[in-house]
Amino acid sequence: MTAIRVLIADDQMMVRQGFAVLLNAEPGIEVVGQAVNGLDAVAKAAELAPDVVLMDIRMPELGGIEATRRIRGAAGAAVKVLVLTTFDLDEYVYEALRAGASGFLLKDASAAELAHAVRVVAAGDALLAPAVTRRLIAEFSRMSAAPRAPLKERVGDLTERETEVLCLIAQGLSNAEIAGRLVVAEQTVKTHVSRILVKLGVRDRTQAAVYAYETGLVRPAGYQ
To answer: Do you know which InterPro entries this protein is assigned to (predicted)?
Structure first.
């Protein structure tokens, strides 16, 4: 099986090297490059074509948010971005998710958590399951502006079952968990998810979840 190719983008050398050592020790994962800032990350993502970019948010030259937007814009779904942050409620992380990141990870994560996150994102899933991620999305969606009409119109294009699946995605459930909740085959859920992404015009599950909060379809717990 081909190893998951990872690019690490962080302006702190010790962080880059530390993550590189941890990931290279994991079976099926290979660190193919390191970037010292956002511009370097964009250039190396184009040159090395990694499967996953570990992206720090606050970097010189070009920040992680804009770097994420450029990488995702150029590579589409081919390169996944996993945002690295020091704080679990960093306001910039929410913007990174909107820019196309597939999830985020705290810099104090264990080696096992880091490897798991890379594998989840590389597989095309979104790192939404951890409660901290759901809390972040919910909190900053609550703080955002009122739902925009065009967004709500697109939600109206969804079928009743697709709307139900979208709500479960926003709660952080995986395809398997959604299948169990709805008592349907996992392949059926995958079909629903694909149609949801097309109808909403979003790249992946993470953006679909953010969309669900932004439109008011799903409301953060405690803020109804």
So the answer is: CheY-like_superfamily, NreC/VraR/RcsB-like_REC, Sig_transdc_resp-reg_C-effctor, Sig_transdc_resp-reg_receiver, Tscrpt_reg_LuxR_C, WalR-like
Per the CB < 8 A criterion, the answer to whether 212 and 166 are in contact is yes
First-to-last C-alpha distance (Å) of the chain: 46
In angstroms, the CA 56 to CA 95 distance is 13
Can you tell me which residue has the tokens 């994962």? Answer: 29
Residue appearing with tokens 């059926």: 188
222 in a structural domain: no
Q: pLDDT per residue over 2-56, tens digit each?
A: 899 999 999 999 989 999 999 999 999 999 999 999 999 999 999 999 999 999 9
The H-or-E segment that residue 71 falls in is helix 64-75
* Residue type present at position 199: K
Q: What φ, ψ does residue 41 adopt, rounded to 5°?
A: -65, -45
Please give the residue range of the domain that contains residue 99: 4-127
3-state secondary structure at position 145: coil
Burial label for 11, CB within 10 Å (0-12, 13-18, 19+), is middle
Residue 94 and residue 40 share a domain: yes
In 3-state terms, what secondary structure has residue 120? helix
pTM summary value = 0.69
